[in-house]
Structures are given as structure tokens and as C-alpha cells.
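A quick word before the example. In earlier lectures we treated sequence and structure as two separate objects. From today on, think of them as two lines of the same record. Here is Sodium/hydrogen exchanger written that way.
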Amino acid sequence: MEMDTMFLAILIGAGLIGISVVTSLISFRVGAPLLLVFLGVGLLAGQDGIGGIVFNDSGTAYFIGSLALAVILFDSGFSTRLQTFRLAAAPSIVLATLGVALTTALVAIPSHSLLGLSWEESALMGAVVGSTDAAAVFFLLRVGGILIRDRVRATLEVESSTNDPMAIFLTITLVELASAGGFSGEALSWGLGLAFVRQMGLGLLCGWIGGHLLVVGINRLRLEPALYPILGLALALFLFAAVSMVDGSGFLAIYVAGMVMGNRKMRGGPALRRFQEALTWLAQMTMFLTLGLFASPSTFIDVALPSVLIGLFLVFVARPVAVWLCLLPFGYDRNETAFVAWVGLRGAVSILLAILPIAAGLEHAQEMFNAAFIVVVTSLLLQGWTIRPMARWLGLVVPPRLGPVDKVELQLPYGGDHELLVYRIAKGSPVAEGERIPRWARPSLVVRDGRSMKVLDSGRPQPGDHVYIFSAPRHGALLDRLFARPTALSPADEAYFGDFSLDASRTMGELATLYGIKVPEGAQDTAVGEWLTQRLGGAPARGDRVVLPPIEIIVREMDNSTDVIRTIGLSLDPGEGRPRRVPMFHNARDIIGSVRDWRAARRRFAAKNS
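And the structure line, produced from the sequence above:
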């Protein structure tokens, strides 16, 4: 009987994962958030669905979800480039900490009035739904092919990867305090403050040190190539468990360790990256299926309407207010802030955290779980399907960055530093127009109309050819120009990046002479690129723009290794084709400017009437 049970469990688990993989085609075809597909499969297989599987073990569900989340966060850190992290580190961390706390406090208000929870339970409800879902955000931004401005994209990706530890910390702490009979103001301030410093501090420190030690240790070993990915993940999970056992944030530790490992030369690094990609998909499916099985939709009816209202409050009030307050000092324009506020998808982490009150035996734990589940579904249905049109409406979609269609990292002996790049020769590119290919850029293989051939036999390169090139990473930008970038911009690119381009080293004084703009005081001899960097708050990104009537200056090309602006675009008609700015989410610079204008207007009015 035990053998039959074992095979039945394998049959059910493998079948559900297989069904999830197949039904994920729905997500790719209609743009549905992938989480909804996996959750739907779990619900259909559960006790209220056609599968009739009874699964109500909260401890097992939380264990499976936590392990899967640790794997997901490790992969998120491993795939986060330091350049991306630096681009949005400060605003993302503020969103991941203060933003989660503000969301928690705001969501507690409707939870108290609509669900009838105590203030302690309402705060716990806010913490449960306080974080955005990394899996949903990464899927919609990366796999979904939404190309938005670099800084906005980096902010969303880093925030969604780093806010889970804060939400987990708040939820666990509030569950413990609620189980102890509530909390006073003093207990709330001192208890939360000390626990936050201890858990986050240990997580950050151990993750940083542990990540470096893991890289050093792995690089000293000589193993079979297939064992390096297994060892890397095993040691990362060991670090996660060890930090959690000493009351640190294991989730933060494994994310930081992953980021350290992913940005250092490590033996077996490319293999670990490929291994993690597949394993993370498996972790996501396992996590979502487990949570879907655990839920009982038949018990949702009593809290359905209040929960939907709480979800709408979260989407339209709590998240926008928290994001605006957090991004206020960082120079994001109104449309960027609006988009960050909209891409606040709730997901599996919120449902996972809602299991904790059940495991702790709190009085209204089941109602909170049901409400959290409905809030997540509301968020995904409303925000998940509208991210692409919202990005277009706000004018944040940028033309595709032309470059290699595929890139293969190579683990070469003796620390060799090359990669295999695959380009599809673009029509109008220098090579397609007959420019001679330099020796260092000559392909090793050409594929034309499905036939592979040697370079000597292929003749003149043709648009649409796929060329395979072994190259050092430093040559990437030069290869882009040769093979993938047309010599002239398309009409759509011209509309976005301006009528023509200038070298960013030209001075603001030269711009003033040519176009009659009013240059800010003291900026006459400042290079345009340097002035843009200062004006944008020190974090420029491709597509950022500043209006200086009668022109608009646009960041066209960046040096990715130094974050220096290389080329700017100029639009002679800033109003043409520009999206309408939302009438809210003013940043600190806008507010200060409005106050100055108001004071100047008052002084002029007083002088006129004196």
C-alpha cells in the first residue's frame, strides 16, 4: 500500500507539473500572468476542483513554498547585474523597506473596516499583501518582451527581488506579537526596530561574506562539470538555512549571495546559470501548485466582496501613495512613478505568508488567508493584463535595443574571457551595405536560409544572415554597430530619440548658440551629457529626456561600462507625439519648482500693486 501511495504521489505531482507547462502556452499567447495559470491548475486539482485532492497541511505547504522561494530569490540575485543594481539601488531599497511598511499601514485601514479584524490582525493582513511578486514582475518584463526605460525596469526588478525579506519579517514578527496577546506602542517600536536591524543586518552581512566565500571555495575545487551547478545551489541553500537558524533573514542572505556569485568569475558559472533557469521554473510551478491545492474556493464567498474592495484599494490607493512618497526625492518623472505604482503585482509570496497565521492558530487566520488569495487574484487580473498598454500610454516603451539574438557564455580553460555571439544581419547595417568586416570581427560560421556554410564560401554578407562570432565581451558594442544596427534610424526610432543626434561632449553653450535655448546659470561650459546626468539625478538611462524650450534633449546612447552618456538626441518639436503626463506624482524637484514659481508670482503681484 505504501508503494502504491508513493507512485500515486509521483503520478499526481508529475502530471500537475506537466499540465502546468502545457497550459503556460495560454500565458504566452494571451498575455495572462503565468501565476494565474499555475494557480488555476492547482485550484482545479484541489478539493473543490475536479481533481478532488485534499491538501490542508499548513506546515508542509509553508515548507515547500519557502524552499521554492529561496531558489527563486537565489536565481533573482544571480541574474541581477551590478550595473542594473547600481542604476536603481537607492530607490529600490527604499521601496522594498519603507514602501512595504507604508503599504502595510495603509492596507490595515480597509482590512479593519471591511473584514472586521482587530487592528493587530489588520496590520498583519497588510504585511501579508505588502510585497510585490518577483516571479510575476520578471515574467511580464523579461519573458513578456516589454521594453521600457532602463531605470524604471531596473527599479521594478530590484524592488520585486528585495522586498520579500521585509514582508516576511513583518509578517512573522506581527504573527508572534499577535499570538502573544497583542502589542503596545512600546513593544511595536522597540520590538520591530531591534528585530529588523538584527534580521536584515545578519542577512545582508552573511549573504555578502558567504557569497564571496562560496565563489572562492568553488574556484578551488576540481570537479566534474555537471557537479558545479549542484554544489553552487546546495551551498547557497545551506547559507539560507544557517542564517535563518541564527534569526537572520535567510531570504535576504540567499539573494545577496546569488548577486555576489552571479557577478564574479566562478568555475561552472555558465552551467549554474542554465541550471538555475530550469530549476527556477520548476520552483515557481511547485510553489504555485502547492498554494493552489491548499486553497478552498468554497470558503471564499463570505469574504469575496470585502477582499475585492481591499484589492482595489491596494491597487489604486495604497501602492500609489507608498510609491510616490518613496520615489519623491529620486527625480523620477510623473509617468515613471505612475508606472512603478501600477506594476505592483501581488503573487505567491502573499499567499505563502497568509499560511503563517493558520499555522500559528490565530482566530481569524482562515479569513485572512482567503482574503489574501482574493487580493492576489484581483491584482493579477487587473494589473497583469494591463502592463503593456499602460507602458505605451505613459510613453515608457523604448525602441528595441539592437544587438545579438543569442549569447552563449563560455567556460574556457585558464580563465579565458570569450563568448559566442549570434547576430542576424540587419538591413541597412554597415556590413549589409558592403562595409568590410575587420579581422577581429570575422564570423566563424554563417547560416543562410537554413544552410550553414564557411565564411569563405558564403560570399558577401546578406541581410537576414545569422553569423556566429567568438569575441571578447569588450567588443560587444562595436559588433552591434557592424551587424545589428542600421546606419539610419527607423521613423519610429526617430520619433522617440529625436530628429538628429549630437555627441554628448558638446557644451551647453554651443547648444544655446545653435537653438536659442536658455541655459541654466553656470552651465555654459558644461558638457551636455554631464548636465543631463546631473539633471536626471545621477542615474541616466537610454530614453530619458529633459525639455529645454524650444527643444527636448534625449539620452540616445550610453557607455554601459561607465554609465556615461555618449550620444544625445534632439527633438525640435517636444510636444509632437509626446504622451500626456499624469496630473499627479510630482517629484521633489517639481514641487520645489512650483513653490518657487508661486513665490515669484506673489512677489510680482505685490510689486505691481505696491
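Notice the following. The chain has three domains: 2-393, 406-484, 491-578. We will return to this example when we discuss secondary structure assignment.
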